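Sanity check. The docking grid for PMV depends on where the pocket ends up, so I'm generating a full predicted complex first rather than guessing from homology. Inputs follow.
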Amino acid sequence: MPAIAAWAPGKIILFGEHAVVYHRPAIAVPVSDVQARAVILPNPLGQSGSVQIDAPDIGLNALLSELPPENPLATSILAVQEQLGLSSLPAFKIRITSTIPIAAGLGSGAAISAAIARAVSNFLGHPLSDSQVSDIAYRVDQYYHGTPSGIDNTVIAHNRPVYFVRGQPFQTLRVAQPFTLVIGNSGLPSPTGTVVGDLRARYEADPESYEPVFNHIGAIADQARGVIEQGDPFDLGPLLTANHAFLHQLGVSCPELNRLVTAALAAGALGAKLSGGGRGGNMIALAEPELAEDVSAALREAGAVHTITTVVQATP
Ligand code: PMV
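Predicted complex below; grid placement will be based on this.
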């Protein structure tokens, strides 16, 4: 029997993180330059239910039955079994690898779940829909983050730019003209759950101070949507930088991310902001294609441990 493989992209949030938890709109795009991959090797002679999980990136090689059910890899597989209403699984080995940096705001957890859900359901002969894959990745994200807005699993499972409002059906974004982003990794792990929880505590103590900031961020996301769908993508630059200033005001940035944003702008980026949970993880900078290498070099000079240059492609 041939191996069955599936993959899912990383993602970045362009606009609206954190405010999206409070039901303001946000925009995210898939990043296929980094990917999670799951490969299934059927084991027709193995004992029913014998599922071996091999995840060399995290040094895990174990049977599904040996893992606690809340293990995110186990949860993803068991969720497929449940979704398909199967009482047991046939024997197989699943190998999971990923080039998406972990805890960096690039959606590593959701992408791994999505790749697993796709590979396992394909192997079982009942490929799940993108929405079903998204639901499974959401469940696993809940384990990591507590109260995720759902934007990560949505953009990753659907593999399209999305305009997302929590609790509403997501909308696909049409990208009128391509644009180039440089992603800079601060090298600090982003503790998304903690940052979201800390902001929640500050918000609950003083909602009047935070509501206007969330409104500003939501308005920026709406403006950005218009630019992405119809305008000149260079106009996204000032919107990105303004969004960063509001995130800083929310207390979710950190000196390292601020330094990277400043360095990108000094190197000629049209705009820059942190992306994702903040207090570590990644930032993004919009660059004219011919300046992307300069921006990338400036980010590394300013402490980025890794940079990725990616093009958000126009969609038909
Ligand atoms: O750290 P990331 O990339 O998973 O992004 C978190 C985005 C937040 O808006 C901060 C939280 C959420 O659930 O939307």
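Relevant for the grid: Residues 13, 17-18, 20-21, 105, 107, 145, 148-149, 151-152, 190, 192, 196, 276-277, 281 surround PMV (CB under 6 Å).
Also worth noting: The radius of gyration is 20 Å.
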